[in-house]
Task: inverse folding
């Protein structure tokens, strides 16, 4: 028999779900930016994004020639650190919902496979909200009383 979340944890689950949703959207957006940056840098295009350099406020410069703030490197670093936050939000929701470990791994992949975090965020939110509503309705329903003879 699988373990089920406790009713007293439902407020914490709602908070964990909201945290996961925000982290999922931010991580997915940063991952898409990172993919675009990698396509610009590691293809024959060979460009990086620079902030505040001699070519203007925000400019694409040839790879390796940045002299100001390298936005391409910044996107890489920010995504990496925010992925850790995403994993924490995943772990928190996973542990409160008492899901199998494979589910944790699938959700964790949302931060490294482009677009997956957006699909998972919608699906997980829908599932968790439906589960919580069902369990709360069951708990609120009065117990049937058996007639005795």
Result:
């Amino acid at each position: 028999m699988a373990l089920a979340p406790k009713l007293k944890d439902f407020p914490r689950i709602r908070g964990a779900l909201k945290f996961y949703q925000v982290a999922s959207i931010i991580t997915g957006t940063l991952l898409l930016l990172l993919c675009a940056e990698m396509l610009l840098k590691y293809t024959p295009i060979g460009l990086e994004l620079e902030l505040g350099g001699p070519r203007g406020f925000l400019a694409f410069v040839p790879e390796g020639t940045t002299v100001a703030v390298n936005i391409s490197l910044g996107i890489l670093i920010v995504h990496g650190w925010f992925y850790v936050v995403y994993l924490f939000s995943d772990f928190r929701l996973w542990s409160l919902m008492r899901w199998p470990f494979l589910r944790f791994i699938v959700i964790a992949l949302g931060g490294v496979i482009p677009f997956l975090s957006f699909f998972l965020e919608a699906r997980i939110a829908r599932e968790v909200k439906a589960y919580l509503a069902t369990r709360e309705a069951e708990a609120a329903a009065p117990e049937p009383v058996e007639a005795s003879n």
